[in-house]
Amino acid sequence: MVLDARLLEILACPSDKGPLLYFPDDGFLYNPRLRCRYEVVDDIPIMLVDEATHCDEATHAALLVAAESLGVEPTFAP
After folding, report:
1. pTM of this prediction?
2. Does residue 13 have a pLDDT over 90?
3. Collapsing DSSP states into helix, strand and coil, what is residue 2?
């Protein structure tokens, strides 16, 4: 299930307050600036800094390529 569009419009990274990239098929939100991802569990984004997964360079690069190829847009314009 996809997160509500209204929620995505206001959803920001709890650490830097910037926009996120949402990957609905994989169930997570990604902050490319900090290279961390937030899981979405049972349609609830887990937006806790301590629960974020930090990505290495290869994963970061792959996520950026995937976002571009899938047309993933930031949750809001900074």
Report:
1. 0.92
2. yes
3. coil
